[in-house]
Structures are given as C-alpha cells and as structure tokens.
Amino acid sequence: MRIDAVTIFPDYFSPLKLSLLGKAQESQLVSFGIHDLRSFATNVHNQVDDTPYGGGAGMVMMPEIWGAALDPLMTVDSDLIILTPAGKRFDQPMAQSLSNASHLVFACGRYEGIDDRVRQHYLSQGFRVHEVSIGDYVLGGGEVASLVMIEAITRLIPGVLGNPGSLAEESHNQEGYLEYPNYTKPQQWRGISVPEILLSGNHGEIAKWRDAQAKARGEKNL
Ligand code: ADE
C-alpha cells in the first residue's frame, strides 16, 4: 500500500518509522510520502489560509494550494481522506475496508478546515473522497487523526503483524465484543492470582470463559 499525507507539519509523521510501521516499510509492504503543504504556497508569506466568506472566527485553508498539492498525488487508484471532526466516524469496519485500498491520500486540515470546494472538486472528477472523523472531539488538526487511521489500517495488511493469529482472534471477536482480560507470568503478582481456568489446559472451557469475560466488559463498536 502507498500512503501519502499532506500537512503543514510534516514532523508530526516521524513516528511512522517506529515499531510495526517501520518494519512494514523495510519489508516494502507500505511506503509513505509526507508532503509539506506550505511548499505549494504562492505568496511571499507562504500563507495557506484566509478568512472565511460569510464571516466568523478562524481561518479556512485555501483551495488553490490544496489543489496544487493533491493534483500530482491523485490517480485512479487513490482514495482521498479529508480529516475533519464533521466527517464519518472512523471505526474497525472502515479500517478493514480501507486496508484493501492500494493508495490512500490523507489531507490534514488545520484551523477551521479546508475550503469545501477541494472535496467537491475531487468528487466531481470521479475520485473516491471520504471525510473522516476519529471521534466526537475537536483536535488541533488532522495529523494525529491520520496517524490513528494509518496505524489501525496498516496492521490489517497481510504480513504487517508479526503474528497473524492476533488478527484471526480479533475477527472472531468482531461481532460486537472486544477483548477478554489477559494474563502472563508470574502466576501470582501482589497477591493476585491468574484465574485457575487459564492454567487448566482445557481449551474449550478457556474459550467459553473468555467469551463470558469479553461480554462482561461490554459491547464495543467493532
Ligand atoms: N480534525 C480536528 N478534529 C478531528 C477529529 N476528531 N477527527 C479527524 N480530524 C480532525
């Protein structure tokens, strides 16, 4: 998968070289391009935003600069993701569906967001455009939201996770419940024992116990 992100803060994306994502790049399962929106600015102050038509607080990111940054990235294989708190809520099914894409382009808005004509334009040109929110709260911009999405999406690409069994267990749980509590060594810690059933070697009973524990933790949005 190829992932491009356009941002005025490219440094936000430095964690991409860490951990699983770093390894995924080394093994060429994923490649990243991080693009500085400001390098497409045309005035002497490298301005990327302006006051909103109709008035109101804050600034809006200008469409020409976004167009100049996105045009060279978009192809028939691209899905454009515009991060905004007003977008569709990101969840596991969306991560699953986007993990099958071949090229994701993340447009990280700041301030009051990106002039809506950017979305309208790429939609009208036949591109797949998604406005996405990672939750009902307002961040300073789309960078952290992009990182959240990138991590959730790329770990679903075959080969990215060291142990593919982890994915199989998650998909087993995808019908509404998330994880049961987990334990490792030592068997006793600060007076608390690992539940007996987990030491029994009875896999059928262990699976039943885990299901019950997961249900007791409550329903999740998976
Ligand atoms: N930009 C600001 N807040 C956001 C959110 N919750 N999700 C995605 N992008 C955002």
Question: What would you note in describing this structure?
Answer:
It is a single chain. The protein is an alpha/beta fold. It has helices spanning 19-26, 63-70, 92-98, 117-124, 142-154, 165-172, 203-217, and strands at 2-7, 31-36, 49-50, 60-61, 78-89, 103-108, 128-133, 188-189, 192-193. β1 (2-7), α1 and β2 (31-36) form a beta-alpha-beta unit. α3 (92-98) packs across α5 (142-154). The radius of gyration is 22 Å and the shape is elongated. The model has no long low-confidence stretch (mean pLDDT 94). The structure holds adenine (ADE). Adenine binds at residues 83-85, 133-135, 137-139, 141-142, 145.
Keywords:
5-stranded parallel β-sheet; two-stranded antiparallel ribbon
Compact overview of the structure:
The protein has 222 residues and is α/β, with parallel strands linked by helices. The chain is 30% helix and 20% strand.
Give the topology.
Layout: E1 2-7, H1 19-26, E2 31-36, E3 49-50, E4 60-61, H2 63-70, E5 78-89, H3 92-98, E6 103-108, H4 117-124, E7 128-133, H5 142-154, H6 165-172, E8 188-189, E9 192-193, H7 203-217
Parallel strand pairs: 1-2, 1-6, 5-6, 5-7
Antiparallel strand pairs: 3-4, 8-9
Helix pairs in contact: 3-5
This protein binds adenine.
Adenine binds at residues 83-85, 133-135, 137-139, 141-142, 145.
Order of helices and strands: EHEEEHEHEHEHHEEH
Strand order of the biggest β-sheet: 2-1-6-5-7
Question: How helix-rich are the residues, as a percent range?
Answer: 25-40%
Shape: elongated
Quote the beta fraction.
15-25%
The value of Rg in angstroms is: 22 Å
Helical stretch count?
7
Instruction: Report the structural category.
Output: alpha/beta
The residue-averaged pLDDT reads: 94
Number of strands: 9
Bound molecules: adenine
End-to-end distance: 23 Å
Q: Spans of 5+ residues with little confidence (pLDDT < 50)?
A: none
Question: Largest sheet, described in full?
Answer: 5 strands, parallel
